[in-house]
Structures are given as structure tokens and as C-alpha cells.
Amino acid sequence: MHSIGMWQKLRTAYTTVYQWLDERLGLGEMYTNLLDRPEPLGNWWNTLGSASLFLFILQAATGIFLTVYYTPSPDHAYDSINYIMTGVAFGWLVRGIHHWGATLMVLVVFIHMLRVFVTASYKYPRELTWLVGVGLLLLTLGMGFTGYLLPWNQKAYWATTVATQIAGSMPFVGDFILKALRGGPDLSALTLQRFFAAHIWILPAVLIALIGIHLYLIIKHGESHFPTKED
Amino acid sequence: MSGSNHLSRRDFMKVTTGVIGGIITVVIGAPVIDYLVDPALRAGAKEAWIPIGKLDSIPIDKPTPFAFTRTQVNGWERTGTSFGGFIIRRSADPKDILILSSRCTHLGCSVNWHADANEFICPCHDAKFSKEGKVLDGPPPKPLNQYTDFKVDGDGNLLIFFKEG
Known about the structure:
heterodimer; A: mainly alpha; Cytochrome Bc1 Complex, Chain C; 9 helices; 0% strand; globular; B: Rieske Iron-sulfur Protein; 4-stranded antiparallel beta sheet; 3-stranded antiparallel beta sheet
């Protein structure tokens, strides 16, 4: 059969290319270590970390696409989002995924933390994984906080007014923190701009670094067994 | 297991993950492409009759500059784009008019009329055009564009037909 001959040739070509790359990159080794590593018997609760990672990637991708049209300026922020929602093809979809994905991510990360707590997976030798995870939870909340202001509508404006005011109620350093968050005593163009910078550059950069450490530790130690009656 | 129809649980999971991942990628990826190129698909040609001024006030045989601005809503903002050119009345005949665009055909700078040299000169790359818009010197590939559709209304106003894009 002619078609089978073609198929064989394609297969050989693929094998040749794959072997060339594998020798140099160690693809097979990577696959075994990352995706085919031994796991204790678990259940669906063990998938929440992967779900968080998936949501992070989804948020990163849709967030990058939103910056194509979004403008972090008090004059245009609201109008540019209005344009995304009504003027651009599938803008409602991209922003909708980002909006609901953000809420879902906070939820999933939080339940992930509860699972680790309930199964006592934070104990030796995984204390650092837990600590880094706490950082990831706080950063996720920080992403939610900074992202909330960006539409620059009434809800966003007053939510940020209130939240920065709460931060400002801290004894001694409160006033400085409030001004540092707002970029001055009042909510202004500077606030929007620095929240935008934090939302798309600073927090994601730290988030990616900590995710890297978190994943490294998980691969190094493997997942924990569920505690038994003896434990 | 090659050669048999048996599919292991592990292989089934791999294939299912791949297929679902692929579906998610396509369902999100295809609309995103449309999302990114959307403004390019929307730019429609707009046309209008633009009043330039009284024909009587335009001198004969002397390139007279004119300019107008077209505003367009681009996304969330109105953008004004300026257009300009020169009217050359060859004679008193209201039909005997040459209207040149001042946009250099090389890279889009605005050419100026230099009466002493009797040439249009582009300041960017020193291109020279004749009074009739022909290329005399420099890099432009074509003569200056012309507004070929024009009319004089009942009040003696000269109007030119403008089409964007």
C-alpha cells in the first residue's frame, strides 16, 4: 500500500529528528522526571496544585492579550475596557476568562492550601514547599487586589480607596504605606499606573520565580502519602 | 502495545489529556487570533466631499496650498488625520484645475512648493516634483497623487472628493 509506505517514512523521519533532539536535550529524561514520576495513591484533591498552575498560565495568556487594547490611564482605562467588551471580536471572551479565572484561581489556590493542611503534607521535608506556597497565596491575592482597580470604574475606585485606607490604618507606618500604595495621598493616575505595573510586571515576576521553586521542591520530594491510622 | 488493539489505562489517559488539551487550545486560540487582528479587519473606506474654498479666491497659475482634517474613531479615541495638497488653476476655466496631494509618494512626508525653483520639494529626502507633479529628481517611485474628482457648487465653492484608504 502506498499510503502505508508514506506513513513509515514519516515515522522514520520523526524518530530521526526526535532522537537527535533527545540526545542533546534529554527529552525522555525530562518527561520521566516531570510527568512520569512515581506518585502515591491519591484522589482528585491532589490535582488542585496542577489546576492552580493551569489557571496561572490561563491568566497570564489572557492577561497578555488584554494589554493589546487596555490603557492604564484614568482618561482611557474605562473606555478601553468598554472597547474590549463591545468593540473587539471575542474581547468579551478574553476578558471574561481573565475575570472569572481570577476568582477561580483564588478559590482553587485556597482549597489547595486546605488540602495540604488537612493531609498534613506540609511536614518534614516539605516545610519550605509550604512556606513558598504561602507566598504564592499572598501573591495571588495581590494579583486580585491590583487587577481589581484596573477597570477604573466606581466599584474599582472605591474598593481600592477602602483597601488602601485599611492598609493605612497600621500603627506608625500606616501613613507611609498608604502613600506608597497610592503613589501619593490620593487615588490618582499614579495609583492606576503603579497598580498596573505591579499587576503585569512585578507580581507576576515574583510569582513565576516562586512557582519554579515550588515545582522544583515537589519534584525533588515527590508528593506526600496520605496519613494512615498509625500516623 | 503495538500490533494489538489493547489500549492500556495509561495510554488512554495520555490520549485523553492530549485531546482535551488540544480542544481547549483551539477553542481559546482561534478566537484570540480574531481578537488580535480585529482592528485590521474593520478599517473601512470612508468618502466625502470636502469644501476647500471659493474658487474666485484661488489665484490662477500659482500652486495654492490647502489642508483639511478627517477625524475617525479608532478604538476608544477620536484620531484626527491631516491631509493637504495644492490647487493649480491652469486657466480661468473652472474645469481646468489640477489638484495635487502634498503627500510624497516616496515615504509620506509633506512636500512644499518652492516658487523660486518652480518645484515641489520634499524635505525628507530632497525629492523634487514639477508643477504638474511629475518626479524630477530623488527616490519617489510615482508622480504626486491627484484629486481627480472635484466640482464647483452653485455658491462658487470648490469641493474635492475624498476617499480614505
